[in-house]
User: Fold this.
Amino acid sequence: MCGIVGYIGDKKAFPIIINGLKRLEYRGYDSAGIALVNEETLTYKCKGKVSDLENFVKGKNINGNIGMGHTRWATHGEPNDVNAHPQISQNGYFTIIHNGIIENYSRLKKKLIDRGYKFESDTDTEVLANLIEYIYLKGKVNAEIAVRLALTKVIGAYGLVITCKEEKDKIIAARKGSPLVIGVGKGEYFLASDATPIVEHTKSVIYLNDDDVAILKKDELILKTISNNRLTPKIQKIDLEIGKIDKNGFEHFMLKEIFEQPRAINDTFRGRVNVDFSTIHLGGLYNVIPKLADAKRIIIIGCGTSWHAGLVGEYLFEDLARIPVEVEYASEFRYRKPIINSDDIIIAISQSGETADTLAAIKLAKEAGATVLGICNVVGSSIPRYTDAGVYTHAGPEIGVASTKAFTAQVTVLTMMALVLAEKRNTLTEKDKLKLIKELTEIPGIIEKILKNSEDYKKIAELYKDASNFLYLGRGYLFPVALEGALKLKEISYIHAEGYPAAEMKHGPIALIDQNMPVVVIATKDKSYEKIVSNIQEVKARNGIVIAVVSEGDTVIKSMADHVLEIPDTYEALSPLTTVIPLQLLSYYIAVMRGCNVDQPRNLAKSVTVE
Ligand code: F6R
Assistant:
């Protein structure tokens, strides 16, 4: 949430910062702003997107070799020009951009008001700017000390970029809870919330840790803790290609990412699965596999789509490896005094690796002595660094706010983990294990086939794009897919949608069904097939409209549903990987036909770094 970019060097800062903001716009798009250090610091900001900011600065002075930029997802204060970042301290000494939340801002604000400070915006960030300035002027200290002292008084999360008008040769950056990466160039440094704005300039990066403060001049980097202990910067090489963060000819990132799933799944199992020897090797878990195999209980935590992947994980671990699993929303888990035993295994799932609630839940579980594993997409993000061990999904950067390829890559990892554990625990026959491993490697090809039928999805989207409500039903492994289908539709098209276990329908939601209610039923051939056929009949008996995702060649459901979307059959345990594709496509086309901005849905942002 909120994207921040900084630059210091000899080049023109403006284009570097604007391009960086465009790459980070998925993190928030309520307002955008930029500050360029010159004789006077030039600050331009406005409500709206980065493109609005570009229009706003047309004809204005955009010189400067040092600067910062911000794209906002509003927390404190409505999205408007005044609340946009950068925020400037009352007497103009400090200019600052911020990603995160200062939780004790109202107390700090009151103290500053008592000392004569006046505030223009409703933001917590302006409070921090004024606090730094107050300490700077009152304590007659330099900018770095003022920043560090101010941060000792702050409760909350921040990724910060700060300049001081009396120390024009430097940028100060700090991190706690919100990600910040430094790009190391020759005679220049870059700063950003993630590596995507940096990668076109340099592949050498430093990931800041919590409580780190960096003082950057164009040819010097000093890294220390808030309490002034000097640190040695750890420079890492990133393996991120610029092509992976462009649309590559697709109209939207979401569509590109839906179509990338065969590649993403393939990259996620490549080098880990060996069909010839019927083995799976997960290097990141090597040391914890014995403990995992003996676990009395696994608790999976995540948010949103990652939580849905966790639900699929529950079916996989219990079905294939016979280990009891609980799946928890990270935000609930962290606040409800969960009973965590030291022999519990916690698996945290997150695309971004920065979700605040998931991170907090991980810290809680670690404090209770549990072993915490991560399934994460963004290399170098916080969750892989806080967990004991884990597995990366190799989906590549996911820019569309609605998660698609991250979900299927997460489910691929969970499937591999369940198969590894099934082998260790002897809960699957060699023959069944081989069948599943082999078919897992065939899933990318099956998805390719499903993706060829886009026209079918467009036709259905055209018919139901004006519906006000949708119901999604599934059973067993396909229940989490129903939840995911409903989430995809509501978040990008703003149509209300609910996912339900199909059998639960008659305990309430059936009352909603009438001739206007499209009901998407995921009804491929599995052990609940007969049951779900009955559920479809129940919907039809109440005049509901049935759109069914069925196995190729199904005639039974075809004779009763209004529309069928046929997909190739797979083993039940692998069916979430294929059945979710039609639901992603359907949501995408409905949202496009309704004129929605699918990559940047209203009120949302990717990477939820506030709780
Ligand atoms: C939905 C979506 C969100 C995320 C959730 C968790 O399409 O993208 O629900 O899944 O915010 O994010 P991560 O996986 O980054 O922890």
